[in-house]
Every structure is written in structure tokens, then in C-alpha cells.
Design brief:
The chain is an alpha+beta fold and 207 residues long. The chain has one domain. It is 18% helix and 21% strand.
Amino acid sequence: MKIKLLGLTLFTLLIAVSCKKKDNSEPEKEAQLEKVTIGGKAYEIVKIGDQHWINTNYSGEGGIWNDATTSKPEYGKFYTYEEVQQFTLPAGWRVPTEADYRKLLTTIGVSFVGAQIQNAEKLKALTSKTNWNNISGTNTSGFNAYPGGYSIDNAYPIGGANAEFWTSSDRTFSIMESGNNTTYNVSFYGKTNQPDRFNVRFVKDAQ
């Protein structure tokens, strides 16, 4: 009788330990990303290759939101090139050059042959999983480009089809849905002397 009782007690103990392990097997929380404060606001930093990028669009002083009610704050603000030239950034940070964006593309496996891009499907690594009209990104890089569109003559942007960012020159870097609605395309555009407004990201060389 004592042996049976001991066996039952041991079995009960094992069950209790097993249940306790299952109760504690919660998913691990994601590591907190490093942040940088720009214009009084903290922005998360993601490392992509040998570059550090803020992983959301800038929304500091100036600029305009996507609409009168700021219905999509994830789009950040839209700035003129003149406004971009007035930004004050922490040491090491800069408005990306065209070369910075080309390096970003190379890091995720996208290359150019002339003006044509290769491995266009890999652009999904840069784009958000939501808000695009026809294509869902994967955002595996952490860059998280939302399709904010752009503003012409201070009108509110029409989002859904492209994400476009100022470079340090008066040119922009654009990720857009392609005509077949299954892949993205990418281009650099000249915007000389135009008052159009675009989103802005910042980059810093990784140490």
C-alpha cells in the first residue's frame, strides 16, 4: 500500500512539474531596439548590413501629415527639399545619399543592370506587411517602408502604391508597386526646383 501511494505521489509530482513548464513556455519578448532622438522624438534603429537606419519615417517639426486627421501616423510626415536641408541631426546621422540607398538594395540582394533591377521579389524585405494596394511586403529587413505616396502643391498625399524618400540631393528613392501588381519596382527620380513633399529616413554607418 505504501509502495502504491509512493508511486502515485511521484506520478502526481511529475505531472505538476510538466504542467508548470508548459505554463511558463510563453514566447520570448522581442529584444528592444536601440533608439536615437531626433527633433525631440525617439526613433528605433535597425541594422541592415553595415548601415543603421531609423525604421519609421521622420515626423518632426514642419512637414504635413497624410490627411487632416493624421489617420495613418505610420506614414510619418512629408517634407519639401528646402525643409530637409534645415534638419539638425545627431553626430554620424545623415539624410541618405543615393549611394546609401543603392547599398541598402545590394544588402537585401537587389541589383541593377543598367536601369533595370534584378531580383525584384526581394524588395518585399523592405516594405510593410500592410497598407499597400495590391502587394504585401514581408519587412524581413526591418526597414518597414509604408506606401505613403507624396504630396504635390501641399495637397494631402494619396497613399497605397509607393513609398518615396528624399535623398541628400534633390532626388528621391522610390519603391512602387509594378504594373503587374505582383512585384515591386524601384527608381531614383530628379525633383529639381519642385515643391513636392516626400517622406524622410536617416542613416548612419555601422561601427
